[in-house]
Design goal:
Layout (H helix, E strand, L loop, with lengths): L3 E6 L2 E6 L2 E5 L13 E4 L9 H7 L5 E4 L1 H4 L7 E2 L5 E4 L2 E7 L6 E3 L2 E2 L8 E7 L2 E5 L15 E7 L8 H11 L1 E7 L8 H10 L5 E2 L8
Parallel strand pairs: 3-4, 4-5, 5-6, 12-13, 13-14, 14-15
Antiparallel strand pairs: 1-2, 2-3, 7-8, 8-11, 9-10, 11-12
The structure holds zinc ion.
């Protein structure tokens, strides 16, 4: 079974899999998007936690998983997942994994996404498939524990997150079947970053460059 995956912009996706509709960091959604069964929010920066986009697709039945800083800015009920914590919803299991910078700094010594900020990525399993949504991160040692996965959503733009070259190193550690480059085309980075990643991954890994339906 293959999931249906829609890319909106930045790190915003809709995944339809095994009868469940999952949104990841919704941002720049066009009007008229269908409601979320599950919503995952990696961290509280404006290109990942967007109140108006969440309001469009969240309803009373939406199950929300969020990192601690994101959960603080969301209306309850929210299941807060700090790095290492996991939860279950029907046939879906979700584990929050660390996401932080090691070499991208806002000012000397101050990373954009500090490790102690408890931003997360999500590893989730449903319908016999395993997904890794990296959030905003560099290549970090914890990635060695994540794979293999069927689908990995990896940032490639550099500046605030991994570059394409660093994402290729992440791919070697995570061993995904399919990589979906993200976090380019809106604020920094371009599709050329995604193409660079495609040229750098080991043979046998599919890099699926999606067309965003918004900006
Ligand atoms: Zn971001």
């Amino acid at each position: 079974m293959e999931p249906e995956i829609v890319w909106y912009a930045q790190s915003a996706f809709r995944i339809e899999v095994d009868g469940l509709r999952i949104y990841l960091d919704p941002y720049h959604l066009p009007p008229g998007q269908p409601p979320a069964d599950v919503l995952m929010i990696s961290h509280d920066h404006g290109d990942h936690l967007s109140g108006e986009d969440i309001a469009q697709i969240r309803n009373a039945d939406t199950v929300v998983f969020a990192s601690p800083p994101a959960a603080k800015k969301l209306a309850p009920p929210v299941t807060t997942l700090a790095p290492g914590q996991s939860a279950r919803h029907g046939g879906l299991t979700v584990r929050a994994v660390p996401a932080y910078n090691v070499n991208k700094f806002r000012s000397p010594g101050v990373p954009f996404h500090p490790r102690e900020g408890q931003h997360v990525g999500f590893v989730f399993e449903i319908g016999g498939l395993r997904f890794y949504f990296a959030g905003d991160t560099d290549v970090i040692p914890e990635m060695a524990e994540i794979g293999p996965v069927d689908y990995a959503f990896l940032p490639v733009s550099g500046t605030y997150v991994m570059t394409a070259e660093e994402a290729a190193e992440a791919v070697r550690q995570i061993r995904p079947r399919v990589v979906i480059p993200m976090h380019y085309g809106s604020i920094v980075g371009s599709v050329e970053d995604a193409h660079r990643l495609a040229r750098l991954v080991p043979e046998g890994v599919e890099v699926r460059i999606l067309t965003p339906i918004s900006r």
